[in-house]
């Protein structure tokens, strides 16, 4: 192509070369032959292709309406001796190479065609292409100038008229069949929706109608019916693609049952649908952009839907499994549509095949939906009759019937429910979603989750309690008991059961809940409820700036002595009296609680002045001092009072309680029966205890707690019979800390369990080593103290069992020492635990015998093998009755079949006296202070050498 095109009136010339038109070719592709001028001009001058005589001519062509147009130039040659009649065809829409993001949605391509010579081409009527009849004389070379409506020409072909007519007829028959199938399918699914009434059919029918509308426009029938308005065709083609996207989303949402109150799926689907609907508005502004976004959204829905379908299929969801093949075919169709749109697939059959494939996909989806909807139909109908019979029986029994038709999403209940609640007879008969308006807000998620579980699991029973609001605004409690009914397709078709009014039962439970946060003896709030009120008071003060809270802690002095000397009944009477006296001093805004056995707490918000608060505390202290009569006795009570006023903006309820406890403890340290107000100078005293607690936790982690052993001597031969294992704390900065300082802290914080288990395990391991190393006729034993928390802890038996199994000790050689007052706190429980421990092979020693208040009747039931006499009975104190008491204790121990160990043997005379009284063992500084395991091993080695 070597000719030139001269620029006139804003136009320019192109190089041309005539294309030979064969007589035996049905269609000649001119798409890549025509030269298109990409800038608009109102006229163009063209140098024609050389004729048979080699002469190049010039022609000028003006636009039909003198407006700027795009121009295309091509030349045709008829070398034969016969006149040729051909049809120049430029399709208005071609899917091949139409693009994805801003697709070509169709337009008029060629306005007119002007030849350089011969008969002017005539436009022929066509609903889907620009068609011009071209006549070529024999031996003629004709240059054609096409006035174009757009600069893009998807396809340009030169057809034999008969061949083009046959092609059109063939495609028209195919399109009619495809469109007929799509229309019948849409109509059939719509009719099924009217008959069946489930949500699946309108969703599927909407998709079928969207496909039909898309094909109606794509096949050109729109132009036949509504005329040739290309801007409207683009708009409607964009509308059809957006509708298809929205219909796909609605179908996926409805078919997979994602609308069963799953709020996340609902929000996601609704947001996507809103975006899709918004594309309709965008289409009015630019249909191509709207169509591009619609195609992207369609792809996202298809791939995300396939991932969701696969996920649900692996979970055994029957609907998802049935949809997998059809959805996979949809993804294959999308891949073909993408390849065709970008030009990777360029074939005349691509576009018709994609249209037929789309109908096939909708047809398969329709079959899947019908298979699911009708698979359990006969069972469903049969079960309705069966359920009616059961309903009659339930009606006779007086229970409320509850029936949920899952497919139609309708709930039916007996009229008794509405009568109970005072509602309209049809109030609760309808979709399950409408129940949410009557349910208590706290029960709505439970109700939704229960029904979701029924649908998802397709088995099991429903047994839930929830509240329904009556006409008067009050809620009543109901228990729902039901069972899902599964069709032959494995899906739940109904859920039937009964409702039972359990309001009376729940009120009883609420009374129990009241008792859980109130003290059983006094009826006052307990610690949990009181702290909640303190939190509320602090929050109100921060929000409103009024009602600064003050916390008062009141502890009865020497209350334990009252219980021990007069009895627990007297102690309870004292507590009730104190509670009544304190209640009379309370104002409506203030709160009173019993937080421990003999400790009361008062929250004051009615008084703000320090003087008024101090006067209130003194008044409380005074009224408690009034004697209380119990029988013929008068008991005088005093109280230690600690007060803390809320001051810091960042202070919490726990901080306020801690400050009040610090003030209370300071009042008790000063002798009690006094009022102390918290001040920052008191905090270091409490912080020392807190610091010691933190250090103790660290010591347990870093192995700073050591086990020392104090020898226990057999008095008959002065040999070492065993040791008492004692805990010692080697603090890195404070040195050796006495057990009297850290054991009480461990008891308060609960670390005593971990500490006791550590001592028990280490002592057992060391004892096992000594028993293997030193063979005695009577094995060595080691005594380990057990605290009250360890005894009351249910894991003590398992801990001892584990220690004994790991060390393989001689039975009875690991002795557990328990104090007399400890086992008497709960004698019945202690008896059972001691029996279990003795059965495991542990020895039992009763420590500090004679210092408690035990009953000898219980003492006979305890399984002790050793008693330990407190050193207060051993060491001389000038009391002439001491030897008598000591001899009596030893005799009592022997009478009960126990061996006796005496603590506090400091001199040889103490040792001799104990031996003469029949005491078997002695322990004291006379025979050795607590020592390390290495030092104790040396003593054993030396003793073994002497006896060998």
Quick structural overview:
The protein is of the alpha+beta class and 948 residues long.
List the helices and strands and how they pair.
Layout: E1 19-20, E2 27-29, E3 35-41, E4 43-47, E5 58-62, E6 69-77, E7 84-91, E8 110-115, E9 122-124, E10 129-136, E11 141-148, E12 157-159, H1 161-196, H2 200-218, H3 221-226, H4 230-255, H5 263-285, H6 287-314, H7 318-341, H8 350-375, H9 377-397, E13 400-405, E14 410-413, H10 415-421, H11 444-457, E15 462-469, E16 475-486, E17 492-501, H12 503-516, H13 527-544, E18 550-556, H14 559-565, H15 568-584, E19 591-594, E20 599-604, H16 610-624, E21 628-630, E22 633-635, E23 639-645, H17 653-669, E24 675-677, H18 683-701, E25 705-714, E26 719-731, E27 735-737, H19 739-749, H20 751-773, E28 781-785, H21 788-792, H22 796-807, E29 814-819, H23 820-823, H24 827-840, E30 843-849, H25 856-861, E31 866-869, H26 871-874, H27 882-895, E32 899-903, H28 908-916, E33 921-923, H29 933-947
Parallel strand pairs: 1-6, 23-24, 26-28, 28-29, 29-30, 30-31, 31-32, 32-33
Antiparallel strand pairs: 2-12, 3-6, 4-5, 6-11, 7-10, 7-12, 8-11, 9-10, 13-14, 13-17, 15-16, 16-17, 18-20, 18-23, 19-20, 21-22, 25-26, 25-33, 26-27
Helix pairs in contact: 1-2, 1-8, 2-4, 2-8, 4-5, 4-6, 5-6, 6-7, 7-8, 14-15, 18-19, 19-20, 20-22, 22-24
